[in-house]
Write a structure and sequence with these properties.
Layout: H1 5-12, H2 14-21, H3 32-50, H4 63-79, H5 87-105, H6 142-148
C-alpha cells in the first residue's frame, strides 16, 4: 500500500477518520478494513496510471505517490457519506487525478528507474522525446488545414 491508516490520520485526524470509516456510530476506533479497502482502490488507480512507465510494484514509494494515494482515499471515504465532500478534499482529488494523467503521458516523471528492461535500469527521462519544433516549422499551418477540413 502506498499510504497507511496512520498517513490518513495525520492528514484528517483520527476522529474524522473514525466517522468516515464506521457506518454505525458512535464508534471509538477506525474501521481499518474500510480504510484499507479504499486505500487499495486508490493504489489500483495509481498503478493503472504508472503501469506503462514504471516497474510495479514500486520498490520505494516516493512521497508524491504516497500523497496521491492519501488524497484519493480521503475523497473516496468522504464519498461514502451523504453530505458534500469538503471543497479542499475535492480539489486535492482533482489535482491528484491531473498529476496521474501527467505521469501517464510523460509530462511529469517520478524519480524512479524506468519501467522495463532487465539489461539496464535507465531513468525514465531517457525514454522521453524532446523537440525544438515550433508552430512555424509546420508544413501545413492551421489555416491551410482548415481549407481541407470543414
Amino acid at each position: 500500500m502506498y499510504c497507511t491508516v496512520g498517513d490518513l490520520i495525520s492528514r484528517i485526524g483520527e476522529k474524522i477518520l473514525i466517522n468516515l470509516t464506521n457506518d454505525v456510530l458512535p464508534a471509538t476506533t477506525v474501521n481499518t478494513e474500510i480504510a484499507n479497502e479504499n486505500i487499495a482502490i486508490a493504489d489500483d488507480l495509481i498503478n493503472s496510471s504508472l503501469r506503462n512507465k514504471y516497474k510495479l510494484p514500486l520498490r520505494s514509494v516516493p512521497n508524491l505517490v504516497k500523497q496521491l494515494s492519501a488524497d484519493i482515499t480521503i475523497y473516496r471515504l468522504y464519498c461514502r457519506r451523504p453530505q458534500n465532500v469538503p471543497e479542499n478534499y475535492k480539489k486535492n482529488y482533482e489535482i491528484a487525478l491531473q498529476i496521474l494523467k501527467d505521469l501517464q503521458s510523460g509530462a511529469k516523471v517520478l524519480d524512479l528507474p524506468s519501467s522495463f528492461g532487465d539489461e539496464s535500469e535507465t531513468s525514465l527521462s531517457s525514454a522521453l522525446y524532446l523537440t525544438d519544433k515550433t508552430e512555424d516549422d509546420r508544413r501545413f499551418s492551421k489555416d491551410v488545414m482548415k481549407r481541407f477540413f470543414i
